[in-house]
From TrEMBL:
Pfam families (alphabetical): 2Fe-2S_thioredx
Alphabetical UniProt keywords: Iron, Iron-sulfur, Metal-binding, Ubiquinone
Origin: domain of life: Bacteria
Protein name per UniProt: NADH dehydrogenase (Ubiquinone) 24 kDa subunit
């Protein structure tokens, strides 16, 4: 008797179990599985349930992409390639499109975040007001490259194309609080004052 191998979407891994860097080869649409929907490979992971529920609520239509991505972000804290592939299979969307959406919005993250986040807007309005220099200064002072998290997990330094505060350029978002007309000294003070436990913690600074 010939036993057919399972469809490829059943073999896909889920966030938390695997993280692979998003390289250009990983974006090749030919690698996208053409899976029937709904995706069932993630049924064993309870954290995936709200993601599945979000996609089901939207009839597995492409218009539910943002809601599904928010659900992944809430459940796992970040959105990795495996999650994007699973959503792509369910919503019949190419990985390249999902990757484009995830990287466009600053509130989505491809890697686990630090306890605090500092997002420097590099959109046109902010760039011409010196956002690039500001980013370099923060990177040097905090000893972390853009897109990365400090070795102690305290701070993630991220960039965005626009955070919706163009009139206050250059704009920086620290723990979801927009700092407009950001100056190096003010950002330095604010980052130095962040506690080590994370936003909302009562921990005192030394
Ligand atoms: S370009 Fe920076 S807030 Fe819009």
């Amino acid at each position: 008797m010939v036993i057919a191998s399972p469809p490829t979407y059943l073999k896909m891994e889920i966030p938390g179990q695997v993280f692979s860097a998003m390289g250009k080869h990983a974006l090749a649409e030919k690698n996208m599985p053409s899976a029937p929907r709904p995706v069932t490979n993630t049924a064993a992971d309870k954290r995936w349930r709200p993601v599945e529920a979000a996609m089901r609520r939207n009839g597995y239509r492409a218009g539910g992409l943002i809601e599904a991505l928010h659900a992944v972000q809430r459940a796992y804290g970040y959105i990795d390639e495996a999650a994007m592939r699973a959503i792509g299979a369910a919503l019949q969307l190419p990985l390249s499109k999902i990757y484009g959406v995830v990287t466009f919005y600053h509130f989505f993250h491809l890697k686990p975040k630090g306890r605090h986040t500092c997002v420097v807007c590099l959109g046109t309005a902010c760039y011409i007001k010196g956002a690039d220099r500001l980013l370099q200064t923060i990177s040097r002072e905090q000893q972390v490259s853009p897109g990365e998290t400090t070795a102690d997990g305290r701070l993630s330094l991220l960039t965005a194309r626009c955070v919706g505060a163009c009139g206050q350029a250059p704009a920086v978002v620290i723990d979801d609080q927009v700092v407009g007309q950001a100056e190096e000294s003010a950002i330095h003070r604010q980052l130095a004052g962040l506690n080590s436990a994370g936003p909302g913690s009562d921990e005192e600074q030394p």
